[in-house]
Amino acid sequence: MKLLIFGAPGAGKGTQAKLICEKLNIEHISTGDLMRAEVREGTELGKELDAIMSRGDYVSDDTTFELLKKKLTGKVLEEGFLLDGYPRTMEQVKMLEKIVGEVDKAIEIQIDNEAIIKRLSTRRVCDSCGKIYNAVTDGLEKGDQCKTCEGKLYQRKDDTEEAIKIRLETYEKSTKPLINYYENKGQILSVDGAGTVEEVNKIILKKLGV
Ligand code: ADP
Ligand code: ZN
């Protein structure tokens, strides 16, 4: 199955993507994760990406595609994947279609801006396995480690109020129109993202028919 997942920053895309991929046994490809890995490695490209991402801006279509392309090969193309955070512009849609053709479904997680800001400012991420936590709902204390792998939990640089505002505006302007595009193809599955992780996941799997 070839899937896409859309949602404003903080909608729960990454969390749901991981769960869906575990269930369907398909590859989870997050362009944001690919970029953060590059930043961690400290490459020249990583330094550029860090500056762009910290502001909350989108990385160029060409650079993003270069990173993505390496993942979309052989077995992954045959057995299926879920793209998390790609495409985000119409140009990216075109680039993607050239290598994968049509996708099966595009999941859209809907959520209002107020909830987003609340979630993102308290989000923490494991630097080792990428697991996502919420400092409030998970009751984290300073210095807590990842419950699955004991990695260090950190706050993303783009989870500041200023960057969140820019990310929301950019999503609205550049990525929202893509929902219409996939809607017109009859591929959109819209889900209310306000529930708990488990609730939202259940609805998604049901709508996917699994
Ligand atoms: P979120 O959806 O919460 O913003 P991601 O981890 O998906 O988080 O993305 C983080 C950042 O990585 C984006 O704000 C952007 O700078 C960059 N990025 C990720 N995917 C893309 C993409 N497809 N095109 C351009 N920039 C991207
Ligand atoms: Zn971890």
Spell out the key features of this protein:
binds adenosine-5'-diphosphate, 210 residues, 9 helices, binds zinc ion, five-stranded parallel sheet, 16% strand, three-stranded antiparallel sheet, alpha/beta
Overview of this protein structure:
By secondary structure, this protein is of the alpha/beta class. The protein is built from nine helices and eight strands. The protein has helices at residues 13-24, 31-41, 44-55, 61-69, 74-79, 90-100, 113-121, 161-184, 197-208, and strands at residues 2-7, 27-30, 81-84, 105-110, 123-126, 132-134, 153-154, 188-192. A five-stranded parallel β-sheet has the order 2-3-1-4-8, sandwiched between helices. Strands 6-5-7 form a three-stranded antiparallel β-sheet. Helix 1 packs across helix 9 and helix 2 crosses helix 3. Zinc ion binds at residues 126, 128-129, 131, 146, 148-149, 151.
Q: Structural class, judged by helices and strands?
A: alpha/beta
Helical proportion, percent range:
40-55%
Largest sheet: 5 strands, parallel
Oligomeric state, counting identical vs distinct chains:
single chain
Mean of residue pLDDT values: 95
Globular, elongated, flat, extended or rod-shaped: what is the shape? globular
Along the chain, the helix and strand elements come as: EHEHHHHEHEHEEEHEH
Number of strands: 8
What binds here, in terms of ligands, is: adenosine-5'-diphosphate, zinc ion
What's the layout of helices and strands?
Elements: E1 2-7, H1 13-24, E2 27-30, H2 31-41, H3 44-55, H4 61-69, H5 74-79, E3 81-84, H6 90-100, E4 105-110, H7 113-121, E5 123-126, E6 132-134, E7 153-154, H8 161-184, E8 188-192, H9 197-208
Parallel strand pairs: 1-3, 1-4, 2-3, 4-8
Antiparallel strand pairs: 5-6, 5-7
Bound molecules: adenosine-5'-diphosphate (ADP) and zinc ion (ZN).
Residues 126, 128-129, 131, 146, 148-149, 151 line the site of zinc ion (ZN).
